[in-house]
Model the fold of this input.
Amino acid sequence: MEQEKLDRLLQSRGFIDETIDPGTDLVKEINRLRKEKNAVILSHYYVEGDLQDIADHVGDSLGLAQAAAATDADMIVFVGVHFMAETAKILNPSKKVILPDLKASCSLAEAAPAEEFARFKAKYPDHKVITYINATAALKTMSDVICTSANAKKVVESFPEDEKLIFAPDKNLGNYINNITGRNMVLWDGACIVHEQYSLEKIIDLMDKHPDAEFIAHPECEKPVLMVAKHVGSTTSLLNYVKTSNSNKFIVATESGIFHQMTKACPEKVFIPAPSIDSTCGCNDCFFMKLNTMRKLYLCMKYEQPEIILPEDIILKARLPIERMLEISRQVR
Ligand code: 13P
Ligand code: SF4
Done:
């Protein structure tokens, strides 16, 4: 069904408030609104290519948090998922922070409800808490420091070797950091629905078929997958790796949006998505990230909705561990 008819049908059933004139040049309109409202658009590598191309900053979670902390724009438009927009709001309480779709959640953030985590934390009263940025603001308030996949090792190593630590909510990233640092952090049992579905068996078959390819993976993948990877890193790190490697072919275990920047940066190189257990599921796409569209971006900038609203006490408490992370990260890049 063409978009205009679909819009009218959705509007007639009360699912959307407004149709967009099919002749609307969305890129032009978004650019006009950005200027008019002094807005900055921050897009994560996992959203569709057009949403990356229109952004002021495209990056991984750390890069985007740093961009949010540094911006002097009046309005922050976060084209990513909810916890990222929340982090931007915590760093900029006086600014308006909007995102194209409020339902853009994250399986990791959902895997750690605050009340359950509080009960878990109470069992380890002498432990410090390191929380992966993929978590709700409420969880961040219960944390000593936040980390991302780009700086997790550095954040963990900022604690003395004998410090007792809890790592939440990603058990795969936590386990990976335990392995490379020799720590023994207590792990919360959460995982990313995209990164936990890769099939080691199929990856090895693919590596056999393409012996000239390098296999690279995001640390949210499970341990056996990470064990066969030539390089493990955040999305920015994976992107930098393909740019500088002498290899011309890569099997990549992370969300499909990253291929946009990889192909742009290295048009002559070949990028193969790592196969999943279920070959029919389109599992390389993060359902939440893919809720973002150019149409929703346009509408959210026009109406300045949906907006991130957080209670003041949550902002105050969650800000401290995020600022600690930014301080530790100053030397990372
Ligand atoms: P990074 O971009 O920080 O590597 O994180 C990946 C991710 O899953 C974001 O949700
Ligand atoms: Fe969350 Fe995984 Fe989607 Fe990232 S890819 S937003 S960790 S569900």
